[in-house]
Structure formats: C-alpha cells, structure tokens
Amino acid sequence: xxxxxxxxxxxxxxxxxxxxxxxxxxxxxxxxxxxxxxxxxxxxxxxxxxxxxxxxxxxxxxxxxxxxxxxxxxxxxxxxxxxxxxxxxxxxxxxxxxxxxxxxxxxxxxxxxxxxxxxxxxxxxxxxxxxxxxxxxxxxxxxxxxxxxxxxxxxxxxxxxxxxxxxxxxxxxxxxxxxxxxxxxxxxxxxxxxxxxxxxxxxxx
Length: 205
What we know:
Layout: H1 7-18, E1 25-28, H2 54-63, E2 66-69, H3 76-85, E3 90-93, H4 112-116, E4 122-126, H5 129-132, H6 143-153, E5 158-160, H7 173-178, H8 188-204
Parallel strand pairs: 1-2, 2-3, 3-4, 4-5
C-alpha cells in the first residue's frame, strides 16, 4: 500500500488491510528506494523518518497493529527514533537487519540493536539466516548475532522466521527453521519463545 498521500485515504487503507481476518499489520522496506514496487537497496535511505508518515504511526497505534520494518544495520538508529516517538506502535524488525560482509555482531552499526532493545515496543524477527551465512547449515557464523539479540532483547521479543519462498536459492524451508535446534546457548525456554511463544504473545496484544 502507499504510505504517502491523502491522510484520510492512508488511514482508510490501513483500516482496510488490518480489517481482514488474521492480518496483523503492514510492512515497510526501509532499505529500499520508496516506490510502488521497491527494488533498489539504499542502506541510508531516511524516508521512514518523513513527517508525512505520522499518520501511519498514529493510525497504527489506534488500530493496535504491528508495523514490520525491513532495514539495513545503518538504519537501526532511525528505527529507534520512530520507536521512541511512537511507543504505542508495535514494531517488528525483519531479518535481523540482514547482516552481511559489512557488519560484525559486536561492532556498529549492527550493535545499534542494543539501544533499540531499550524500547519495549520493538520485536525482532530472526529470519533469512541462510542468505546472510557464509557457512552451511546450521549457519554457525551467524550465531553470535543471535546470541547478542537474546542478551539484549530477551527471548520474549524474538521470533523465528523463514523468509520463504524467497529462500529457494539458499536453503530448504526446513533448513531455514531447523538451525535453531543446533544452537548450544539457547535454553529450552529460549527455544519455546523463538519458535512460537513470542508470536502468540504479540498476536494477543
């Protein structure tokens, strides 16, 4: 949907979308050039901070809906600004901000997640790991990213995801999810929240 435009039309579109059964919210591709069909990646695009989006955040709070945001690490500080300005909006960060060869789990900008974790309205979806990994299943080279997220957010604000069917070139559906069973630092409680309890908690709020 178009997030910019006549405010009343934007509000109506949001109500229509979440009015469908089992529709939990909308998604913003923050790291993509804003267009009808976003394609070009821009790690520093700042359109998500545009004042014209105030109507989206305010309506999202009124509708008690989630806004899924797909950023790159360089944009995490922007998401923190939104989370602070709109504490009543549930924000879900997709794909742990797609770590890649430009990021490290203990260095900025990816560690901006730690500051983001101070905002209780932010949840992180741990998904699309095979795309970021350089090692085969169970993607050990990405586990330090997961370890940090568990420490910063707690398992209660983390959700496992697959990113299927877009993962066909990287892994099977089973591989996209089963890696979590091989992570030695995750407790049984951590595992239960990542795999289902966090999602259940979020959809009940």
